[in-house]
């Protein structure tokens, strides 16, 4: 089946702008009933319905490398109707590049005969139920637009179709399509009334409305065939309802409700009820949408915006309303194999299970930092996710595709974009450095999982890897051999969310403030080591030697300038002008160990400091992987500490009823009350259970009585060594 012989990229004339929704109804004739294959690609997103069957979701890609889906539908003999709905974001966010709009498709029958293709004869209409244009609130700067939908609006007349100048899609989606579940089980847990207090966004209106809590409806399960009738109190503006899906979830909004007359419905979503309601508005973010219901029963599914949430809040501007369902339809990435881990200590068994769910909730079109606030692909976050995913899921397609997305983002300054496949005004140098290690780890685990290293993929990534490495080498100071912070405002000298390790965004660093940064030097050092290891495994020993030497030279400089003999640890910073060493952190010392810079007595001193009271700034959840890996240099001495620390940190979240693991241990109160309660980087206990708790150097650790679950036995027995 040869694609794109007839099809053209098309769009509606005058609608290649921002936040645009279109609808197209077409027909094709099938000679007999059977399966129809639809090849389709869009910018930014689509849903396609044929005979009551819906599939949706454009792969997150680049305009210069468009990806298409191959979808399969049942079609009847004779004429079939299809409905194509489209959304075009049109400007930049952390998940999307603002590019030219367009859609292209071809439908084929089972014999490969072309049934339909996109061309100038297609008939577009604006999908007027959605508000179009930049006036709609953004969920967040990273995530892009929320939506406002008015079910009362009729479709306007057709508009002219034009051909768009875009490269033809060159390859099929590299990861599996998400599975679309039914309505996720939920409970109407609280209802009551509300009074509008005003606000310039839907989220502010919801956040600051006065709520009169009424009945607790703990047994009112949704969906419900009969529905639940809710009535507002006299003098109030409408009905309030709070829906609990029971755990952290990710999926698309699904509503089924009935109102006696036309009524606006504000829909807010969130991960907690710390405000005694959903936190719809925080720090300029708007976790709220508007749906205007027409009189009678309304059934609505929005395929264009995935929500990360546990709770849904409804403000229905009506004196009464009947709710049949309000919640989401889950959109999970299909995993073929899963590791199971059970332990005599039930706390660790539970930590493992919740870690695995956290990973899954942050896997959709690519790895996501979190499903609620950003849904963005970062190198640092995804490195943790990949390491855990190799072990938990034995999955290679997903990391392979995400690595390619990140490599394709390389900029003219030889750094990666902060997020892929996005375009962001700043980037983090250390996040480019960790990419060198991510690719090496992919090469290693591809061999462990399949028996053969995926050298082809890694060779494709090599040009980007070498550009990054060469740029860091070029930036080494000729006198000290160290790498300073990046002084230009387009760089963010970030290492982790801890005091002194997250510089101000967009700050130009003056000469007096310029520092050599031990964390950056360490990230680059083990990145160079990883690139050397990669090249050696690919049979390129001469090139590998150059990067191996650069790695060793950088380690020598780190030892010369950052070691504080009085404290027995490494300092984080060295002021370039004065030579002053300052700031002492667990992360800094763990990274230096990870880079193989600390040896002999220095290594012993640092490991002791990481487990004792050395006055080091503690590591946060995301980067505790480096601390644990450093300590596992001597597992017989420090393994108990590592597992005890995991029990304390991750157990604390479970004791606070976490159903997924948080961005930081502070939970929702972090980052100006915008901390996420599901963050992929916090699934790292999986790595240490899989690598160390079951077997250690061929022997049981003696820490816990661990047993393999049945699924793990089916998938090959013991965890990957």
Briefly summarize what is shown.
The chain is built from 15 helices and 34 strands. The chain has 721 residues and is α+β, with helices and mostly antiparallel strands. β30 and β31 (569-570) form a beta hairpin.
How would you characterize the overall build of this protein?
The protein is α+β, with helices and mostly antiparallel strands. The chain folds into three domains: 10-159 and 167-177, Galactose-binding domain-like (Jelly Rolls), CATH 2.60.120.260; 180-332, Galactose-binding domain-like (Jelly Rolls), CATH 2.60.120.260; 426-633, Glycosyltransferase, CATH 1.50.10. 28% of the residues lie in helices and 28% in strands. The protein is built from 15 helices and 34 strands. The strands form nine sheets. Strands 13, 16, 17, 18, 19, 20, 21, 22, 25, 26 and 27 form an eleven-stranded mixed beta sheet that branches. The protein has a five-stranded antiparallel beta sheet with strand order 5-4-7-2-10, with no helix packed on it. A five-stranded mixed beta sheet has the order 9-8-3-6-15, with no helix packed on it. Strand 32 and strand 33 (581-582) form a beta hairpin. Helix 9 runs antiparallel to helix 10 (600-611).
